[in-house]
Design brief:
- This protein has 2 domains: 117 residues, D-Maltodextrin-Binding Protein, domain 2 (3-Layer(aba) Sandwich); 104 residues, D-Maltodextrin-Binding Protein, domain 2 (3-Layer(aba) Sandwich), CATH 3.40.190.10.
- The chain starts with a helix and ends with a strand.
- The longest helix has 29 residues.
- Helix 2 links the parallel strand 1 and strand 2.
- The strands form 2 sheets. The protein has a 6-stranded mixed sheet with strand order 2-1-3-10-4-11. It has a 5-stranded mixed sheet with strand order 7-6-8-5-9, sandwiched between helices.
- It is α/β, with parallel strands linked by helices.
- Helix 3 runs parallel beside helix 4.
- Helices cover 42% and strands 20% of the residues.
């Protein structure tokens, strides 16, 4: 009889353990923060998310990094985003105009710079002067984000147009899905030049910056962000953390300039 009682007790304890485990799993799932952010923010937001989670162990931060255009379309189609950070104003506006953002939480979070890069062993020399002939200064192709949709590509087209280079170089442009893909093409030597953000270029030892476009050559590179309409209290707290002095110090270390 004692063995039967022991088995019943063990079975009851096992059931209680499974119920508790299920409840904890459900709680973590319910309190997960879904962060959707531009690809250029991958490294800095991964570090900040990891640091924040070490102090808040009762929920997870699920990160999705891609081109701002891709993320905006995903959110429009029902992706469960709680925070959206775009690499330009246009795609933040796109999501906001569809009534998917909490307008009052929208902030201009960061700025960045636009640079022209080449493989680290390249001998190319560039002069930022409309009289300089960019098209004859190098062989091969120039990689950047898709100028029709990806923010870095849109900034790149503006800068190239500013120097009267776009018309001569347009057919040699390789438009990628996000800035990190453009960076990878230059790293592998598949593109002789690339236009990316300063923060991406400084993360790689396989490329070098051959020119930095002045701010006057393109619209301001700003990263607006906001909570979505479905974001909960945990997401609100994390969004506030990303605007804190502690987070700003990390952003600066990665080469960004906080805007608040």
């Amino acid at each position: 009889m004692s063995f039967v009682f022991f088995d019943r007790k063990l079975s009851l304890l096992l059931r209680l353990f499974l119920v508790t485990l299920l409840a904890m799993t459900s709680r973590v799932h319910a309190e997960a923060i879904n962060l959707y952010a531009a690809a250029s923010l991958t490294d800095v937001l991964t570090e900040l998310s990891d640091a924040y989670q070490k102090q808040h162990l009762d929920f997870a931060i699920k990160k999705s990094f891609a081109g701002s255009s891709t993320l905006a379309k995903q959110i429009e189609n029902g992706a469960p985003a709680d925070i959206f950070i775009s690499a330009d104003k246009d795609w933040a506006d796109y999501v906001q105009k569809r009534g998917l953002l909490n307008d009052q939480t929208r902030k201009k979070l960061l700025t960045n710079e636009l640079v022209l890069i080449a493989p680290s062993d390249s001998k190319v020399r560039i002069s930022l002067d409309p009289a300089f002939n960019l098209s004859t200064s190098f062989d091969g192709r120039l990689c950047t984000g898709d100028p029709a949709s990806v923010p870095v590509g849109k900034y790149a087209k503006q800068a190239l147009t500013h120097y009267n280079w776009w018309a001569k170089i347009e057919t040699r442009i390789v438009g990628t899905e996000d800035v990190r893909t453009a960076l990878a093409f230059v790293e592998r030597g598949e593109c002789s030049l690339g236009i990316v953000y300063k923060t991406d270029a400084q993360l790689s030892k396989k490329v070098k910056v051959v020119a930095t476009f002045p701010a006057t050559s393109h619209t301001p590179i700003e990263y607006p962000g906001a909570l979505t309409k479905n974001a909960g209290a945990e997401s609100k707290a994390f969004w506030a953390f990303l605007q804190s002095d502690e987070a700003n110090a990390v952003f600066v270390r990665y080469g960004f300039s906080p805007l608040h």
